[in-house]
Write a structure and sequence with these properties.
This protein has 428 residues and is of the alpha/beta class. The protein contains 12 helices and 18 strands.
């Protein structure tokens, strides 16, 4: 395919540029990039898209997704999950290993890659389990899993509770320069169903204190410092965790971190009325924590915005609060919720491109995140001003467990392009 995208704002985090310009795609790659002042080359007979008022970013990269396949296809499949990703502007996603069977061996990793290739909507990078069966005891075969396409290791969904096992995992990973992604949680404190505080008391629900996350983040950053390994902290939700990570980075620890849109847009108040669509792990925290998460994104303590896309059916969500499953879908709402940080002046559009494209791609080591001649044409075209109602009937995901159902959102991906092909195009 050969087409021209013109009159757009080009946000290129790889080259740290923010310009008005155009981009020519040819043979699956970016062929030429230029400014509006330069004018574009003669493109007679070439498909032209006039993108006045839109932004072009490198394809978004989500480093924390649950695709549920194999084993829980009634919640999501690799095809529906990657189609939802494309609708949200994502061209690459990393999927967590808590499938059934767990992704702790080469056969499951190969299966995921094969199914994703068949679907074609987004690049899928499997994250393999740290321990066999995610049981926290015996390490998986890191070398074998990396060889067949795993990009990192995590027991996400459950923490590696034994510090000696986590130390060995970090040491083992460092021999491959591989990434460990930690689900930071102290299990003995994680026995509640929402944040511990005033709201949990009023609702009569057992809470989970901030210390549950803070203790685990401190432990794992200390172990990363001890071993010299690469550590990534998943779904950061507390003020204390942000500060621990900030201090660890100042000490030179090889640590990166992500948060999710629900942690900088919602608080524990969303649980009022026993709303299971606001139940997640880690839980929604206080306004003080929400502001600290935003500050962490602003100053670079938090490197990436990930969705922690966690689809569940009505079987798991529409029940009493304490028995309901944790998690919400996020692939189709992450962009408008994150654009709100730009609208409120917390991030520039270019900084948003770093958080949602360049940084996650480089943490995972998959390349990309730049608008450069010769690079694969993985692109996200965004209309930051379009307003829409987020409706169940418009979802591409198989599940609809989202606290934003029925709400008006502003800004969305209007086109998503992977390897020069349109994987999503919003009509109208």
């Amino acid at each position: 395919m050969r087409f021209l995208l013109k009159n757009a704002r080009l946000l290129d985090p790889g080259n740290k540029t923010d310009i008005e310009g155009w981009l020519l795609v040819e043979d699956m790659n970016i062929a030429l990039v230029g400014t509006s002042q330069e004018g574009h080359p003669d493109v007679s007979g070439v498909e032209v898209h006039d993108l006045q008022g839109c932004w072009i970013m490198p394809g978004l990269v989500d480093m924390h997704v649950h695709l549920r396949e194999p084993g829980q296809e009634y919640k999501e499949t690799i095809e529906t999950g990657t189609r939802a990703a494309a609708a949200g502007g994502f061209t690459s996603i990393a999927c967590m290993p808590n499938t059934n069977p767990c992704n702790d061996n080469a056969a499951v990793t190969n299966f995921i890659i094969s199914k994703a290739t068949e679907a074609g909507y987004a690049r899928v990078y499997p994250v393999a389990a740290i321990t066999k069966g995610q049981k926290g005891r015996e390490l998986t075969e890191f070398g074998e899993l990396l060889a067949v396409g795993a990009v990192a290791f995590s027991d996400d969904g459950v923490p590696v509770a034994d510090a000696s096992v986590m130390r060995h995992a970090l040491e083992y990973a460092s021999s491959f320069n591989a990434l460990i992604i930690t689900h930071a949680e102290e299990p003995s404190l994680a026995t509640g169903s929402m944040n511990e505080g005033v709201v949990s008391t009023l609702l009569g629900l057992k809470g989970i204190p901030n210390a549950c996350e803070d203790i685990a983040v401190f432990r794992d950053t200390c172990l990363a410092e001890l071993t010299g390994a690469r550590l990534h902290i998943a779904h950061v939700s507390t003020k204390g965790a942000v500060e621990i990570i900030r201090l660890a980075k100042r000490r030179g620890v090889h640590v990166t971190a992500e948060t999710a849109p629900h942690y900088f847009t919602l608080t524990e108040e969303a649980v009022t009325g026993y709303n299971t669509f606001a139940k997640m792990n880690p839980p929604l925290r206080t306004e003080e924590d929400r502001i600290a998460i935003i500050e962490g994104l602003k100053d670079g303590t938090l490197d990436a915005i990930a969705t922690d896309h966690a689809p569940h059916s009505v079987l798991e969500k529409e029940k009493e609060f304490e028995a309901a499953a944790n998690g919400i879908i996020g692939l189709e709402t992450a962009l408008p919720l994150s654009i709100e940080l730009v609208r409120q002046g917390y991030l520039t559009p270019l900084e948003l491109a770093f958080k949602m494209s360049y940084n996650p791609s480089h943490i995972l080591g998959i390349g990309g995140g730049m608008l450069k001649k010769g690079m694969p044409a993985d692109l996200c075209i965004i209309d930051p001003n379009v307003t829409f109602t987020f409706k169940k009937g418009d979802l591409f995901s198989k599940s609809y467990n989202s606290p934003w159902l029925g709400q008006k959102l502003k800004g969305r991906a209007v086109m998503t392009i992977k390897k020069g092909c349109f994987t999503h195009k919003k009509s109208g």
